[in-house]
Specification:
Elements lengths: L1 H15 L17 E4 L4 E7 L18 E10 L5 E2 L4 E5 L5 E2 L4 H9 L23 H10 L5 E2 L3 E10 L11 E5 L12 E4 L1 H5 L4
Antiparallel strand pairs: 1-2, 2-3, 3-8, 4-7, 5-6, 5-9, 9-10
Length: about 210
C-alpha cells in the first residue's frame, strides 16, 4: 500500500513543482494587438494574460495581487540588429492614468504582503484573499518571466512579460493603449514610438 501511495503521489509532486515556461513568441504582426513600422522593419505586439485559461502558465496568481501580465513581442525583420537597452513601456488607461511596468521587487513585495486595495475590481479578476509569503518557485518565476532582452537580432523576435499594477481599475484593457519608446536601430537612432490599442485584445481569440 505504501508503494502504491508513493506512485500516486509522484504526479502530484511533479505538478506542484512545475517550472515556468515562457510562451513561444510568434511574429509580432500576427497578434491582434500590434503596431508595425514597415519602413523600419520592426513590429511590436502585446498579448495580455488576463483570462483564466491563459494564466495557467503561472504558479503565481498575479490578478489576485493586482497585477496584469502582458506578453510583449518585438520582431525585427530588418537586416541589422535593433537596440532595446533604453526602451520604456507605458500602459495608458482610458482615464489617462499612466502606468509603468512593475519591477520584480514590487511584485515580490506585494505577494509577500498583499494589499487590501487589490481586492476592489470585479471579474475577470478574482477577489480571493492571497496569503502572504514568497516561495523559491514564485521568486524564480517572477524573475524568469520578465522581458529582459537588450537587442533583437536581424530577422528574429524577442519576448517576455511586463507586469502592470492595475489594482483599483475595474476594466484595465478597455480603452487602454500600450506605448513603447526608446527602441533604436543599429546606428543608435531612435525609432518612432510604438502605440498598440488594447481594445483589439478584448474581442480577439487567444493567440
Amino acid at each position: 500500500m505504501v508503494a502504491i501511495a508513493a506512485i500516486l503521489l509522484v504526479p502530484v509532486l511533479c505538478l506542484a513543482a512545475k517550472d515556468f515556461v515562457m510562451p513561444r513568441a510568434q511574429p509580432a504582426r500576427t497578434y491582434p494587438a500590434h503596431d508595425e513600422h514597415p519602413l523600419e522593419a520592426v513590429a511590436v505586439a502585446v498579448d495580455p494574460y488576463d483570462l483564466a485559461e491563459k494564466t495557467t502558465i503561472f504558479s503565481v496568481k498575479y490578478s489576485e495581487i493586482g497585477f496584469l501580465p502582458i506578453f510583449v513581442v518585438v520582431t525585427n525583420d530588418g537586416n541589422q540588429p535593433v537596440q532595446l537597452a533604453g526602451m520604456k513601456a507605458q500602459l495608458v488607461t482610458v482615464n489617462r492614468a499612466k502606468l509603468s511596468p512593475a519591477g520584480p521587487e514590487d511584485i515580490a513585495r506585494r505577494l509577500a504582503r498583499p494589499s487590501a486595495d487589490t481586492n476592489r475590481y470585479p471579474i475577470p479578476f478574482p477577489t480571493k484573499k492571497v496569503k502572504g509569503g514568497l516561495s523559491k518557485q514564485a521568486n524564480e518565476e517572477i524573475q524568469n518571466a520578465q522581458f529582459e532582452a537588450k537587442a533583437v537580432e536581424a530577422h528574429s523576435s524577442q519576448s517576455g512579460f511586463l507586469f502592470f499594477d492595475v489594482s483599483g481599475i475595474s476594466v484595465p484593457l478597455a480603452g487602454a493603449h500600450f506605448y513603447l519608446t526608446g527602441v533604436r536601430d543599429a546606428k543608435g537612432n531612435e525609432l518612432m514610438y510604438f502605440e498598440v490599442p488594447l481594445e483589439k485584445c478584448l474581442s480577439a481569440p487567444s493567440h
